[in-house]
């Protein structure tokens, strides 16, 4: 079934519309939207990495929640803005405008269903700006809508204890941490015998880039033919389990805090024309 890593009872599409309409306190219920991509991740990892990781972390986080914390996952968005990887077969990309429109329309649908808290767990490093723009647009349309866009890896985790200093400094794609957590989440898709290490050159301007990471726009092929930007070779299953556990624990706490959050609300739309047209039976208003 399509609930994937989520507990079935925490997967919103498994409810009927009448069950959703009857949910208590939808205004404080947290809807969690994993948002990934389908893009190359080197010769040793599948193209589904970003989607698997964000969906896996969300599912493990929801499984840790106490019953009184009302939260449900939506199916993951599996296509993202992956144009920096389009030179590699298997990359399926949307442009920024299409992804933005998709995120806003999903948010509008969540709002129409009576929910007022949307947590976007973004697994792809090439699109956080799109998530932020979508969240702001939704807030401007609906002043009582709390939309939080956050990257999967931004919450506390233990990956750093296993990584070299060079990895921490320069790795960006298909490296140590992603490989380790994929060994925990989807081991059958990982082929360590094909893994290679590859780092970008340090950016020559210390003023523009104090840490040496590329300060200019780049595409994955700028750094070589493998698609890897980092070193996956030291990754192990045991590391991946520990990283997954730490991320899931942090995200469970974040969902709990969002469920209890008090934030100023303005009932009227403050910009543009609201897409909240029509009334859904049982929805507030």
Query: Structural class of the helix and strand makeup?
Result: alpha/beta
**Helix proportion range:** 25-40%
Determine the oligomeric state from the structure: single chain
Name the CATH superfamily assignment: Creatininase
Task: Please explain how this structure is put together.
By secondary structure, the protein is α/β, with parallel strands linked by helices. The chain has one domain (8-260): Creatininase (Rossmann fold, 3-Layer(aba) Sandwich). The chain has helices at residues 17-21, 49-63, 96-112, 128-141, 165-170, 176-185, 237-260, and strands spanning 30-35, 71-73, 117-122, 146-151. α2 crosses α6 (176-185), α2 (49-63) packs across α7 (237-260) and α3 (96-112) crosses α4. It is globular and about 55 Å long. The two termini are 34 Å apart. 41% of the residues are buried.
SSE topology sketch:
Layout: H1 17-21, E1 30-35, H2 49-63, E2 71-73, H3 96-112, E3 117-122, H4 128-141, E4 146-151, H5 165-170, H6 176-185, H7 237-260
Parallel strand pairs: 1-2, 1-3, 3-4
Helix pairs in contact: 2-6, 2-7, 3-4, 6-7
List keywords for this structure.
globular, single chain, 7% strand, 285 residues, disordered C terminus, alpha/beta, 7 helices
């Amino acid at each position: 079934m399509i609930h994937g890593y989520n507990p079935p009872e925490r997967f919103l599409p498994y409810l009927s519309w009448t069950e959703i309409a009857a949910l208590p306190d939808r205004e404080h219920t947290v809807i969690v939207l994993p948002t990934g991509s389908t893009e190359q991740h080197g010769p040793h990892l599948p193209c589904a990495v970003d989607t698997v990781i964000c969906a896996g972390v969300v599912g493990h986080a929801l499984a840790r929640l106490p019953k009184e914390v009302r939260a449900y996952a939506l199916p993951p968005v599996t296509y993202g803005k992956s144009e920096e990887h389009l030179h590699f077969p298997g990359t399926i990309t949307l442009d920024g405008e299409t992804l933005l429109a998709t995120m806003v329309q999903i948010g509008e649908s969540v709002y129409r269903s009576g929910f007022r808290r949307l947590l976007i767990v973004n697994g792809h490093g090439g699109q956080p700006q799109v998530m932020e723009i979508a969240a702001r647009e939704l807030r401007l349309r609906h002043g009582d809508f709390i939309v939080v866009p956050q990257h999967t890896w931004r919450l506390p985790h233990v990956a750093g204890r296993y990584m070299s200093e060079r990895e921490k400094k320069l790795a960006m794609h298909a490296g140590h941490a992603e490989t380790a957590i994929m060994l925990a989440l989807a081991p059958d898709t990982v082929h360590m015998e094909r893994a290679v290490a590859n780092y970008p050159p340090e950016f020559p301007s210390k003023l523009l880039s104090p840490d040496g990471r590329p300060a200019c726009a780049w595409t994955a092929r700028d750094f070589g033919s493998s698609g890897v930007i980092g070193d996956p070779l030291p990754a192990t299953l045991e590391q991946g389990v520990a990283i997954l556990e730490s991320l899931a624990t942090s995200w469970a706490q974040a969902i709990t805090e969002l469920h209890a959050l008090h934030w100023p609300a303005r009932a009227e739309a403050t910009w543009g024309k609201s897409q909240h047209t029509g009334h859904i039976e049982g929805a507030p208003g």
